[in-house]
Specification:
2 domains, Aminopeptidase, about 290 residues, 9 strands, alpha+beta
Length: about 290
């Protein structure tokens, strides 16, 4: 096979265009799963897939597939490429999107060269991989792999009170294919994560050595609400103080681990949430990750 080169301008153009969808008033990229901006991004991706001559299919959890089935490969298990296009809050424009659009570019390059693969090639964009609006994260791929029932996933209530299945239907991406309808021969994902380690080490590219197990928890601590000025320290049951103690414990516990444990408290609320009232309730999330 002759050496092939991708069209870098086309790839970068797709990345920039997708990276412009979902910008807020502060120019932060916020494209949460099944939102209006996610719909717009999905519409762009679907159009690009169709423009590349791929058959576009959507399964019940909203995963989008671009399918290339050359003559004579109908009965072969496909090679699957992809990632996701939903984002976290204040996201990088490459995270997830690069894996999808690089896969699209590879397919377009192969098709232009008249390369004939011996098995189908499928591009996929999984739904709600970040898990910001709906928990858990990596949901689309989890459902696709059989680790979570599709009906259970569709019934998930988001942080804004919406239901995932309703939102997928609203934006037009509640497909009819059963998750797992295509069983891949192999799956490849090119991914740029928003991590600082490679840059710090001066290394341009790395191979993934392990995956992290994730535990997400929501913790509620209850105390007593009393006046901030008249209640002596010795008489307080301060839920906010208890929450702070838990957070500092998590940091010390992670630092003391003999593996690369990380712990994050990303959300916290107090009740009654007044400047001059001792918190009667503290609710916070805990994100624990470790390769073991």
């Amino acid at each position: 096979m002759t050496e092939l080169a991708i069209n870098s301008e086309r790839l970068l153009g797709h990345l920039r265009e997708l990276g412009s969808i979902g910008r807020d008033e502060n120019d932060r990229l916020v494209r949460l799963a099944a939102s209006d901006s996610d719909k717009l991004a999905r519409d762009h991706l679907s159009a690009w897939m169709e423009g590349a001559g791929l058959e576009v299919a959507v399964d019940r959890i909203g995963n989008i597939f671009g399918i290339w089935t050359p003559s004579g490969t109908t009965h072969s298990m496909p090679l699957m490429l992809g990632s996701h296009i939903d984002t976290v809050i204040d996201a990088g424009m490459y995270d997830g999107c690069y894996g999808v659009l690089a896969g699209l570019e590879a397919i377009e390059t192969l098709k232009k060269s008249r390369f004939e693969p011996t098995r189908p090639i499928v591009l996929v964009a999984f739904t709600n991989e970040e898990g910001v609006r709906y928990a858990p994260d990596m949901m689309g791929s989890l459902v696709y792999a059989g680790g979570l029932g599709v009906d259970e996933a569709l019934a998930t209530v988001g942080t804004d009170g919406s239901v995932l299945g309703d939102e997928l239907a609203r934006i037009g991406y509640a497909g009819h294919y059963q998750p797992g309808f295509l069983q891949p021969h192999a799956y490849i994902e090119l991914h740029i994560e928003q991590g600082p380690v490679l840059e710090r080490e001066g290394v341009p590219v790395g191979a993934v050595e392990s995956l992290q197990g994730i535990s997400w928890q929501r913790v509620t601590i209850e105390g007593d609400a009393n006046h901030a000025g008249t209640t002596p320290i010795s008489m307080r049951r301060d839920a906010g103080l208890a929450a702070a103690r838990v957070i500092t414990f998590l940091r010390e516990r992670a630092k003391a681990s003999n593996t690369s444990t990380v712990a994050t408290v990303g959300c916290m609320t107090f009740e009654p949430n007044a400047i001059n009232v001792i918190p009667s309730k503290a609710t916070f999330t805990v994100d624990l990750r470790d390769p073991d």
